Amino acid sequence: MKAIRSLHPDFQNLLERKEPELIHLFQDLRALILELYPESNELLYHTHALTSVFSISEKLSDAFCMIPIYTNHLNLGFNKGTLLEDPDKLLTGTGNLIRHIPIKTIADYQNEKVKNLIKSAAEFAINDMDKPSKAIGKTISKIKK
Description:
Layout: H1 9-15, H2 20-36, E1 41-46, E2 50-55, E3 63-69, E4 74-78, E5 99-103, H3 112-128, E6 139-141
Parallel strand pairs: 1-6
Antiparallel strand pairs: 1-2, 2-3, 3-4, 4-5
Protein name: YdhG-like domain-containing protein
Pfam family, one: DUF1801
Domain YdhG-like: 26-121
């Protein structure tokens, strides 16, 4: 695996307050997403969850997946999950667009089915994008201090 980009200090400070197992799962899942789509921009938020969003542009509307970290768990979310083909029925949720995979162990995402879903989501976002991105492979903090 290639070296991945470092975490933004705003995000790192908040992440360190989470349980060690959640931190490990987040870091490993983030590395997987960045390995599969290294050109993605990472948009960082802290609202109801500490969230890392992966987008093909600098806009949230062009995001293909995200990792929200809650108090006791995290998810692998797909921003347009209802529009993705999901032959293995991996996605759960009831929202109009967003679907997710609950993450409890590394086995929940370190498999070909999930990797293919991430790749499919990125391809969908590329084909759905209005205009080319000005930013490629950037980390953009939206965390208010």
